[in-house]
Specification:
The protein has 180 residues and is an alpha+beta fold. It contains three helices and twelve strands. The strands form three sheets. The protein has a four-stranded antiparallel β-sheet, with no helix packed on it. The longest helix is centred in the first third of the chain and has 20 residues. The protein is elongated, with a radius of gyration of 23 Å.
């Protein structure tokens, strides 16, 4: 890869020259690189899954960046050599993480993180027969990481199901078993 500076010849050229060189622009710099050859190997299942996931992330990024506020949010997180599109793809590619679920009296405290931001945390209280006793949304705390939900109808045995959802809609589910 070579960075091109002050070349009148390559100033307006973009694309592939012959079957050897590709010329493109990124962040105002002209870059010349050897043309990548197409692989002759059949992709593995993991590669196919990663490609599908990337295609979904790219479609999300393309659609969500039509909203100027969301685009400005992602652009504010972009570092050197990155843009809002890169950040939106990165956000869509990774799911949020539920790090901890704690029960303090009748309040469920959920610690959830995402590289970008958690959009919502849903809480579902289920008894030992599998019947949903209640469900609702937790409220984010001041630190932006902990989410709080006041349980009204808590069973002695059962479970509390937490679903953390990020901006692209990726969801991560985790459970807290009640009554051992």
């Amino acid at each position: 890869m070579a960075l091109v500076k002050d070349s009148l010849l390559l100033h307006a050229v973009r694309g592939t020259l012959g079957d050897q060189i590709t010329i493109y622009e990124r962040n105002g710099q002209i870059i010349m690189a050897k043309k990548r050859a197409k692989s002759k190997k059949k992709p593995t299942k993991k590669q196919v899954a990663a490609r599908e996931k990337m295609a979904i992330a790219a479609a999300y990024a393309k659609e969500i960046l039509k909203d100027p506020e969301v685009k400005a949010y992602y652009q504010s997180l972009a570092g050197p050599g990155q843009n809002a599109y890169n950040m939106a793809i990165k956000d869509a590619y990774r799911s949020p993480e539920v790090q901890q679920i704690a029960l303090k009296e009748d309040t469920v405290v959920v610690t959830a993180k995402d590289e970008f931001r958690i959009a919502e945390v849903q809480v579902r209280v289920v008894d030992e027969q599998g019947k949903v006793r209640e469900n609702g949304r937790a409220v984010v705390g001041r630190n932006g990481v902990d989410w709080y939900y006041k349980v009204v109808d808590r069973p002695v045995k059962g479970k509390i199901v937490i679903i953390a959802v990020d901006l692209p809609g990726n969801a991560t589910e985790k459970e807290l078993v009640l009554g051992g």
